[in-house]
Specification:
It is a single chain. The protein is mostly beta strands and 88 residues long. It has one domain. The protein has no helices and five strands. It has a three-stranded mixed beta sheet with strand order 2-1-5, with no helix packed on it. Strand 1 and strand 2 form a beta hairpin. The radius of gyration is 21 Å and the shape is elongated. The N and C termini lie far apart (54 Å).
């Protein structure tokens, strides 16, 4: 399993068009990638007279991928800032 570790920072606000608090800027920062290793169930594909062996993540849906090809995204921290309107 390839594990991707990210930090998320979101900025929220309220506006006349949508008065409830809602995010308008979401940023994701890639922190670390732990590779899952080589594919354990490569798939043979044919194109004309040639055949090729490719990783199952390039061909199969997630349910049929081997454990090395699956990707898990883990959120390390989620930071929320709220912008307040200052009227003077």
């Amino acid at each position: 399993m390839t594990i991707v570790l990210v930090d998320i920072e979101q900025v929220t606000h309220t506006c006349p068009a949508y008065p409830d608090v809602h995010p308008f800027d979401i940023r994701r920062t890639l922190i670390d990638v732990i590779p899952g290793g080589p594919c354990r169930a490569p798939v043979t594909i044919r194109c004309g007279d040639t055949t090729a062996l490719i990783q199952c993540r390039r061909h199969e849906p997630v349910k049929r991928q081997c454990s090395a090809c699956r990707v898990i995204v883990t959120e390390r921290t989620i930071t929320t800032r709220h912008l307040t309107e200052v009227r003077g």
